[in-house]
Amino acid sequence: xxxxxxxxxxxxxxxxxxxxxxxxxxxxxxxxxxxxxxxxxxxxxxxxxxxxxxxxxxxxxxxxxxxxxxxxxxxxxxxxxxxxxxxxxxxxxxxxxxxxxxxxxxxxxxxxxxxxxxxxxxxxxxxxxxxxxxxxxxxxxxxxxxxxxxxxxxxxxxxxxxxxxxxxxxxxxxxxxxxxxxxxxxxxxxxxxxxxxxxxxxxxxxxxxxxxxxxxxxxxxxxxxxxxxxxxxxxxxxxxxxxxxxxxxxxxxxxxxxxxxxxxxxxxxxxxxxxxxxxxxxxxxxxxxxxxxxxxxxxxxxxxxxxxxxxxxxxxxxxxxxxxxxxxxxxxxxxxxxxxxxxxxxxxxxxxxxxxxxxxxxxxxxxxxxxxxxxxxxxxxxxxxxxxxxxxxxxxxxxxxxxxxxxxxxxxxxxxxxxxxxxxxxx
Length: 427
Ligand SMILES: Nc1ncnc2c1ncn2[C@@H]1O[C@H](COP(=O)(O)OP(=O)(O)OP(=O)(O)O)[C@@H](O)[C@H]1O
What we know:
By secondary structure, this protein is α/β, with parallel strands linked by helices.
């Protein structure tokens, strides 16, 4: 569902035009089409690229003899089937066949005649499926190719806190956090609700533009330490295939630096401000500056010995919904806090924080998920006792995970340790 945006519409159109041209010229006896010429270089390369990506993934898993190679003076990995080699695919109940060929042709240039190799793929199918190939199969190939490219893209974790002398610059490392919605132990209903909301958000560009709203969504994750706020952020980024910008407010000197940082984020990103109550004085947004240091204006929270940011709450509010946040494509802004009650209402209102997600102590569903993920345990006699004790024990998923980690190879020991801890806590 995020795929269409990866392929420019013109390319899809060109692809369709290209194939319809070929298909229209079909003879009933001739059931092949070739991906060659007919298009200008740009479109031809794009179309070719989609087919290559698609065929590479198919053939790599289908046959070892089909391999990728990199011809010199090309940056691209080019797919190679052996000449005249082919493979079949069944799609929607009919068969198509892809094959790869090289044709030698003579080219004349200023009186010289050279022979050139021209490579092409042939897609063959029975002519009665012409329409289906055109309207279903080829769009499917483009879509699959986009999915493959999308999944192979490396994503990044950006931070503004890597000791850069330029306070408005982001540094990045590859984002490799393994958390996904499958590994996340939270109530299933909540998990599905979040996934649904994310999917809705991802596909609603037209809606946001139509009602004059910037295409962003704000989440507030709140709950005690160790309940999975950071893990949920990673799972969200992995789910959407977005980059993450981890914004450390205490490293930002003023509101204009904050604005610059926001402007240099890319679209399709999650911007995260963790423990917002600890890095920003959010108690009073009317109080813009306080006078200390011999009358010099000092922003809220910058007093000596205070680890608060110099950025004001209004700076953050502008950051969240100011005019300049309308730059570019979709952004998800996530704030986390252990104490929702410490936050100013201005920050919490819908439009700024559209969704408030409470991550709390572990319940029996989340407990079973962790037992399954860590110990591969489907069920256990002791689960009934655990279920009874959990509501009063107030144990976090992080604590349970830690106990499981201690006895990964001994399920009984792991369960006995965890029950002991839960008992202790419920007393
Ligand atoms: N809901 C969860 N599902 C799976 N693992 C979890 C969950 N919550 C916590 N964990 C485990 O505990 C560790 C700490 O969790 P995490 O950092 O996500 O919690 P947090 O709520 O962000 O904590 P803090 O408020 O201290 O930042 C994670 O690395 C993960 O292994």
